[in-house]
Amino acid sequence: MSVARANPAPSAVPSSATLRQQVYAQLRSAIEQGRWPAGMRLPPSRAHAGLLGVSRNTVLWAVQRLLAEGYVEARVGDGTYVAQALAKHGAGAPSSAPLHAPALVAPPRGLSRRGQLVADTAARWRPPLVAARAFRIGAPEVASFPFAVWDRLARQASQAQRAARAHYLDPAGDPDLRQAVAQWLWASRGIRCDAAQVVVCSGSQQGIDLIARLLLDVGDEVLVEDPGYPGIRASLLGHGALARPVPLDASGLCIAQGAAQWPAARMAVVTPTHQFPTGVRMDLPRRQALLQWARKHDAWVVEDDYDGEFQYGNAAQRVPALCSLPGSEQVLYVGTFSKTLHPGLRLGFVVVPPALVEAFAMARAITDRHAPGDTQAVLARFIAEGHLLRHLRRMRELYLHRQQLLIDTLAETSGGHWQLPPCDRGMHLLHEAPTGSDDEPLARSAQAAGVMLAPLSRYAINSPRRGWLLGYAGYGDEEIRTAARVVGALAGR
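Above: the chain's sequence. Below: its structure in token form.
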């Protein structure tokens, strides 16, 4: 593996980079420039470290990072290989090619090692900065939010109450909001928890960040779903943890396979109610197997219930949260109001074991002290007075209607090529293509026509699954029809 030593990429490796970052950048450059073709087996780490004149741990760190980003793939009992998924891009692919991550960018001078890890997350995940349009996923219906009700509740606060909330507040959250959330979780998701276990945060992304900061050390391994949400992986990698991809089947995360491949893992992050992005619901035997793994390995399970409220059967048919099962003491539940209400609130929460509450509250205090007091207070009343329940009932009916409209219009406009099965949960649908297909060209064509059509490959690490994701929740009937005509015409070619 002397190629990396003989042909480094000095322009891509800043002089301020650490030794392991330099090794990582050289290996990645060799892959991106085609000097290491797809399918090539990497030499053993010990031999490679000898060639480069560095420690074996330095090489292992670089290879583990490439593995997490999808540049290489591990084959149990057979070593590490350059990912086959890169073969279609060819040698010398430009940095704009749709790989799992863009080319390395020289970091700003002066960043710490941890700061560089955080800065590097831009190569794996960028939050959208443009207005949502069909079929971008994750966008809820905002126009129908009861702003008048919200404003009325805000005006009902007395001058004394407003003045009290203008001071520094409990970093764990407003007591009334924590109580309202705890009661809501019991009624809606079957979770029995004390209000003191609820820590209010700025959405689920901050919840994941708090968990990673407090429960993981640099180099710790975390099982993540593959395909899965890049924002979760970015947060973990930004804290120096190693995101270990685990495949999915019809029952959810394949925990037995993950445990066998990554026996040192200290945490698993899952979306069991409506897996992101495939839509699979984790069944009861798999949930029990996951909890058993956590107990056996003294590991944590993070349940990201990002859209668990959007189950479209009657209340008796809705699946409760993983956190509601017996033996779930090592599950941390992450919830958000970004999907149930709207992202502009910037409010979410984490339900943690009682012994961890103080640490989570202090981490929140160190980060941004606390959430805005007035917003927390209004939300507490919004929940307690039943407005959240009424809003969700309306949204479930609306989203189910929009889902069916999307299915019908796509089937018609594609000439029957796209037959999406209905789903009784979630805010988006997946149209899966044959394994190993290239799902990028259609996504680019749709983008050029003004339609956001995310390819499944952008959410995969090692998974060969391909397809397209279509969000429907936040778009009116005419916008859905118009975008579906565009996609249907492209898919029907």
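The CA atoms of residues 399 and 473 lie 5 Å apart.
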